[in-house]
Amino acid sequence: MAEIVIPTKQLSVLDESMDLQDALKAFVYSEDDVLPVLDKTHQIFRGNIYLLDLYKHLAKDPNSTTSITQFIKNTNKYITKKDCLLQTLFQFGNLPYLAVLNEQHHFIGILRHHSFMKLLEKIWSFDHAKYVLTLDYENVDRAMYQLSKVIHRRCEVLGCMSLTNASPVGHKQLLLLLGQETTEKNLRECLRKLEKRHFKIDHLLTLP
């Protein structure tokens, strides 16, 4: 995922010491409506500032030179280099980008939403998928062996992702992407055999 992170030196960023007028000038040279705010060392991520919020304030006080700190939002909307794909997906929400931090929690750049979604499409081949299956395998011995023995004989597997690291209680879960050649009959048989081996069918989504 590192290859789609935009590094700090290629970004327009705001310094927390700026006032509103300084921030507006920074937005002029940026194509974004949202910019990250960093501390004076440009290492610590403080949050984001939205251009619309500045305009709303200026409408009331056109000559304002107030500090930008009162406009900071999304202070916890960041990921680290070690976060998995699912953790990243959950963090995005409706944000245009996420701040990316290194092991020392220093700001190193941003990950744009559209770049991340393109990466997911590339990894998961959604255009060729028919089903998304989520399995809980908390109580299954030799789970990967059992899964492979059952599912590869009957279903076309396009991708497999572990959700364990993203689970708040550490449940052992897998998300499987099944291809167009997977028939409904084979899928039902596969699910029956998985449940017999103590897999729990957490969710099954049929893609349009």
UniProtKB/TrEMBL annotation:
<protein>
    <submittedName>
        <fullName>CBS domain-containing protein</fullName>
    </submittedName>
</protein>
<keyword id="KW-0129">CBS domain</keyword>
<dbReference type="InterPro" id="IPR000644">
    <property type="entry name" value="CBS_dom"/>
</dbReference>
<dbReference type="InterPro" id="IPR046342">
    <property type="entry name" value="CBS_dom_sf"/>
</dbReference>
<feature type="domain" description="CBS">
    <location>
        <begin position="7"/>
        <end position="65"/>
    </location>
</feature>
<dbReference type="InterPro" id="IPR017036">
    <property type="entry name" value="Lmo0553-like"/>
</dbReference>
